[in-house]
Amino acid sequence: MESPLRLEVVVASTRPERFAPVVADWFLATARARPEFEVGVLDLRDITLPVELTETPAVAQFRDRIGAADAFVAVTSEYNHGYPASLKTALDSVKHEWRAKPIGFVSYGGLSGGLRAVEQLRQVVAELHMVPVRESVSFAQAKRRFDASGATDDRAAIDASARMLGQLAWWGRTLRGARAGDPYPG
């Protein structure tokens, strides 16, 4: 049997009173219920990546985690119609390790549910030679979508997460095999 795919979930918001843990914890429980994934968390609040994009021990550790992963999901808020600067720094801190790997998005925010941030991210990850999967998960007015225990009854988000994880698994397996047989020419 094929080994599970290493899925790294990147939690983008670093604000002190962020809502990110509620959304991320729900998604992590959903992803961990899938046997095709071994799930890790890269919470950018806990990782010190220099905005100058210099080499540090934290950058080297981050690069190793990215290099070992088969797939990614970015859990991101939307601030002022865009994604957090911490996520841009994370994407720019590593180069080759992102390439030929799939990424999905779980977004949250006001009326748009973070979709404007995701549309910007799709352009950035394409430039990094990543494969953004078609399906994404979005929570408009996110604080109203979760109960006190962190559960949601948002059927659209629940269904979208299942489809997105299926697409990540397919692309993750396919690209892992391709990278093993013929390294990506980036």
Detailed description of the structure:
- The protein is of the alpha/beta class and about 190 residues long.
- It has a single domain (about 5-180), classed as Rossmann fold, CATH 3.40.50.360.
- The protein is about 40% helix and about 20% strand.
- The chain has five helices and six strands.
- The chain has helices at about 20-30, 55-70, 85-95, 115-125, 155-180; strands at about 5-10, 35-45, 70-75, 100-110, 130, 135-140.
- Strands 1, 2, 3, 4, 5 and 6 form a six-stranded parallel β-sheet that branches.
- Strand 4 (about 100-110), helix 4 and strand 5 form a beta-alpha-beta unit.
- The longest helix has 27 residues, at about 155-180.
- The protein is globular, with a radius of gyration of 16 Å.
- The two termini are about 30 Å apart.
- The mean pLDDT is about 95.
Provide a compact summary of the structure.
The chain is an alpha/beta fold and 186 residues long. 40% of the residues lie in helices and 19% in strands. The protein is built from five helices and six strands.
Features:
alpha/beta, 6 strands, 5 helices, Rossmann fold, 186 residues, 6-stranded parallel beta sheet, single chain
Which percent range fits the helix content?
Answer: 25-40%
Distance between the termini: 30 Å
Principal-axes geometry comes out as globular
CATH class: Alpha Beta
CATH architecture: 3-Layer(aba) Sandwich
Largest sheet: 6 strands, parallel
What is the fold named in CATH at topology level? Rossmann fold
Count of individual beta strands: 6
Order of helices and strands: EHEHEHEHEEH
Mean pLDDT: 97
Can you say what the CATH homologous superfamily is? Flavodoxin domain
The proportion of strand residues reads 15-25%
Q: Kindly give the count of domains.
A: 1
Poorly predicted segments: none
Count of DSSP helices?
A: 5
Q: Supply Rg.
A: 16 Å
Structural class: alpha/beta
